[in-house]
Amino acid sequence: MSVSFPYTYYACSCADNTSTQEKRVSQEPQSAQDEDERTFDPRSRRSNFSLYPIEHLLYCTECHEMRCPRCVTEEVICWYCPNCLFEAPSSTIKQEGHRCSRNCFNCPICTSPLSVNSLEQPDPPPDDKPANKFGGPYILHCPYCAWSTLDIGITFPRPSNITGQLAKTLNGGLPRPPRDRKPSSSLKRSDPPTTHHLDDLPSPTSDTSTSSSPEPPSARTPDPQDRYHHLLAFYKHQLSTSDAALLPGTTSTSASELGPGSPSSIARLLHMYGSSIRSRAPESGPSPMREAATPEEGLLIYDAAAEAADDATIRAMQTTAWDTHASVSQRLDATNRHARAVDDLRPISPLLRTKRAKRCGACRQILAKPEGKVTSVRSKIKLLALQNLPKLSIKPLASPSTMPPPGTSAAGRPTSTLLTTFSSPTLALPALSPSSPFALRPLTTTHYLLTLTNPLYDSIRVHLAAPSALRGRHGAGSRVTILCPQFEVGANTDRRKKGERERVEKVRREEAFWTVLGVGRIVGL
Amino acid sequence: MRARPSPSQITASALSSPNSPHTPIAGAYSRSLASLYGSPSSLMHRDENFLVLEFGSRYLRVGFGGEHAHRVAMTFGPEDERRVGDFRPWLPGYREDGPVSLEAQGWGNEYELWDMDTRELDLDLVRDKIERAVRLAERTNLMLDLLPRKMTVVLPSVFPRPLLSVVLSTLFSSIQVPSISIISSSIATAIGAGVRSCLVVDVGWAETRITSVAEYREITHSRSVRAGKRVLRELAKLLNEQVSKRFADGQSESGKCPTLGLNEAEEVLYRLGWCRQLADARSASKANLSNDETDLPRSDIEITTTDPPVTLQIPFQDIAAAIESALFAHGSATKDLDDHEQSIQLAIFRSLLALPIDVRKICMSRIIVTGGIANVPGLKRRIKQELEYLIQTRGWDPVGDYGKGRPRRPRTTNKNPTPSPGATKPTPTDNDSASEEEYIPPAHRTPDPDPIALSIQNRRAATAPIQGMLRLVETQGAWSGASLLAFLRVKGVVEVDRDRFLKEGLAGYAKDKDADGGPTRKSFGPGIGAAGERGKWSLGMWA
Amino acid sequence: MSSRQSSSRSKAPKGEYIETDSGNKVSRKANISGTANITLGGRTVIMADVNLRGDLHRLPSSTDEPSAKPSSTSTHAISIGKHTVISPRCILHPPHRVHRGATQYYPLKIGDNVFVGPGCVVSAAAIASHVYVGEGSVLMPFCMIRENVRILPGSVVPPNMVVPPGSVVGGRPARVLGEVGEGWGVNVAGAGGAEMWVEGGDLRELVRSVK
């Protein structure tokens, strides 16, 4: 793992297969030659996308290649809530926005899980145990940052089905007005009521005087979800009543009209779904498709009310403190996309997680298949790269603290890497920042030990190579010497669970050109 | 609703058709389709997944068609580029690398998915980023149980072809969707607003794009670099000035003056960004010249990314001034600016001016300000006021400055050159009183109002488009517009078929550009001769 | 408050650790209170300066009288499974909550092959098996860590949080950041040397090496 130095990363070659370089060769003819000889550069930005710790790699025994997370295809086995570990039935998950519909909620301020607490007895602190005996209003309370739904003026009469109760309540405690829908529209399929907790209204107010005179929500901009469904109903209506022939541009089709929204294409589509009225003569046909004209049809004008709302927002900005405004990350997490103030935020129901089977992207062999039960951690199939590729690990020789447990190691910040190529896998060895005990120091030689573990039942031959000088910010210019560039690792002797291991000593020599004199010749070896 | 054949059916027929001899490159794929989907009839009862993706310079919005908002917006910052298993930002004592100097050429570039200037762009890096973002979004937010049948991608209408190729091939390979339809972001924005003609002002990240749309057709397109990146850069400048001033005053004990970057500026923009009204800005700029700004109200800005955290006190006005100077360029004269860095209001004005007058009168009352910066409170009003001012002072005159010469006509000061909608509304019943006063022979009488004609007339009047006045319309956003389209199963013109794209790439599409110009180019009826018609493709405006 | 634990275990005069019959290794420098309420599964290591608060156990609900001896099954305060390593300076403090004005303690369970890094404060309700807790982390009361979880150093796991199986958590407060790979805890065909144990894997060799 990357956290504790030193670490190894393996480069999956799948990135090269999908390279677009060949398509651009015409533009850059000079780069065509070094196309083939391009070696993997662990410092390039691209390398971050193809380097993996070996634990994350699978191995396809058909293709005899390692498979990284992006060259496998995945299939969902089950969905479950990470908080209550309850498996969600696949029929309802999409309607619920792939979120837990039970009583799980996360704090919109700090992302901790919220707990349901009773407010009945005012005397004990609110982190009292929510036993069934307690009645009265309930709140969601964050035990980490002490935020609670009281801050947004919401209490719940019952401790169960918080999701449903929350969906019916606005910030400030007012009941959410019933959604006005066109009676004829067939929106039920597209608008399951359970999605409500995903999409919260912009709260009526952002001033800090809590709910003294909250504006009625109707005076504000409408709920984006409502507006969306108004638009949807409007378009559906238009699509079913408009006659395609009346639309301008239908008759003349030229290449210039091929924009996806061009009237001809819309018209044809309309025609497709409105074909029942096709038989009518064009003269007596209904009016052509028009645009939305009223708020009921989804039109929203930036008018005086919106300007007043902007003014209120600006006033609130000016008068309130920095942390009453939602931060960037809080807004990104929020289910209410229009949240501006902290008061606009709502409890977040956690996203579900999935268990997935993985297949090889090339031959579709199953590489990993966990058991179906949520709580089970076993796998039916697991073809690991660890069991099929030599494992490389590297550590400094004779360094003060390589004794396990290495949890005490400083959280170093590797910034530059040394590259060793080992047939297809690639090992990236970091140099540490100067504060680290393993840091490269000018004019001193540091020894590293590379250990290879061969899990295979055949011996392997290993060729090591390294760039002659390091690049990067730390330890740049340091020279690398490999003491044993070629060697053989014996086969894994079966049953005794004791892989043959070879140790290769590698000495890294350093030449620090940034020292004052710049003459950093080191006696090597 | 009629049943549409499943893509697997189409694929199968296309494969078997002699007209389109496919090499079985996607053999494994179609096999898997059949096994996954089962028979087409069972598919109809399944919950279908229409994926909608909107690509921006900094965000990728992903969600399902038919929902009102996207599920997740993937970001492309440096933190999103980390290696798998690299959790260093979460460790104690982690410090980010210092931000790039404000004067650097590519300030903020590391937060972008792509740069439209593809000369220096590493397309493979873009591919990697898209691939990871799509995979992560699928994993954490979409959790698809079935492969999606259809995908709609929202792209800017002016889009480099190398990038288009990268986007399509990455999507085809990472999510195995049979076909992708592409829709332009301005059209999707118009659909999301419920209008058919409009002027879309997309104040995005790298540039502000101004597109005029008439009847769902893009007419003109212009750009200005005055957009989010510039705003954030101005804000970062303001913050850094304040920090260095503070350190110079010796108010802070620690020695080194930190440099604040995009993250801090964005935090300020999100929390305290606003725009003044035009009149206020003018009076403030005059007042600024005369007196000191010590007594202006100040806002606390807490910067937690520095060590130790600092609290800056910045005049509230200055934040607005920084944003406005980035967007409206009042500090510099028009002639000093290049064409690509004109102020927003001038770019909008010129776009309107370039339109034919009948389109202009429709579009000017349907101006849609969208994009990330559009959420800054006060910005829309300010744009409206700036435009009103321009129209008032210049009229619809393409010449901005006559110098020593004189304009041919006196400039109009009429704000609404065409009658307002109230005037166009007819009042059809006036004849009752007249008939009582004197006798008129039936032949000369005004006919009794025909209820049917009246209702038609009323309907026409009600639906008569508002035009000629300056009006801003709010949109649900391009993503929601595309989601509407996807859910209504409106089939876009640009539909890219997976098999064909993987075989021929974009070149195969460009070739057919001329071929399908004819009136019988293609029918959108899905079942009719699918195999034969699938031979012809177009990239539409992206060709 | 905490008594130096040395009574019930066999005394070995040499070495830092006392080894019990079932192979548990307990440092002489560990502070252990309420020994009767602590269960060690066998071959488990308790390192120096670890505080085990076995005295904070659940009281019988009928009476408030503290019962010193295990009268019922529910008096376990801390139970630790096999091959688990508790690093120096950790504090294992059973979770508690205030119920009707009285502080009620609940048992703290730790599974097999769990590695708790140095300087951690653990008040979790349960830690399942094959969990790696990084150095200096705080596991606040009643959090539950499921199997194959890696907790990054310096994390603060908030109260009541359930960490799903196979995830990586970190931050203050901690959130799920990612997943451990399929190869989590798999140690390939190696014995001895540098690779005698991996994070989340079988800690038997590590336990054996502690002397």
Write up this protein.
The complex is a heterotrimer of chains A (about 525), B (about 550) and C (about 210). Chain A is of the alpha+beta class and about 525 residues long. Chain A has helices spanning about 15, 35, 160-165, 225-240, 265-275, 305-320, 330-335, and strands at about 10, 50, 60, 65, 70-80, 85-90, 115-120, 140, 300, 355-360, 365-370, 380, 390-395, 415-420, 425-430, 445-455, 460-465, 480, 485-490, 500-510. In chain A, the strands form seven sheets. Chain A has a five-stranded antiparallel sheet with strand order 6-5-10-11-12, with no helix packed on it. Residues about 20-35, about 120-130, about 180-220, about 245-265, about 270-285, about 400-435 and about 495-525 of chain A have low confidence and may be disordered. Chain B folds into three domains: about 5-195 and about 475-540, Nucleotidyltransferase, domain 5 (2-Layer Sandwich); about 195-225 and about 340-400 and about 465-475, Nucleotidyltransferase, domain 5; about 230-330, Actin, Chain A, domain 4 (Alpha-Beta Complex). In chain B, the strands form three sheets. A six-stranded mixed sheet of chain B has the order 3-2-1-4-5-13, with helices on both faces. A five-stranded mixed sheet of chain B has the order 8-7-6-11-12, with helices on both faces. A two-stranded antiparallel ribbon of chain B has the order 9-10. The radius of gyration of chain B is 28 Å and the shape is globular. Chain C has about 210 residues and is an all-beta fold. Chain C has one domain: UDP N-Acetylglucosamine Acyltransferase, domain 1. In chain C, the strands form four sheets. Chain C has a nine-stranded mixed sheet with strand order 1-2-5-8-13-16-19-22-23, with no helix packed on it. Chain C is globular, with a radius of gyration of 17 Å. The two termini of chain C are about 30 Å apart. Classes of the chains: A alpha+beta (about 525), B alpha/beta (about 550), C mainly beta (about 210). Chains in contact: A-B, A-C, B-C. Chains A and B meet through strand 2, strand 5, helix 4, helix 5 and strand 9 of A and helix 4, helix 5, strand 5, helix 6 and helix 8 of B. Strand 9 of chain A pairs antiparallel with strand 12 (about 470-475) of chain B, so a sheet runs across the interface.
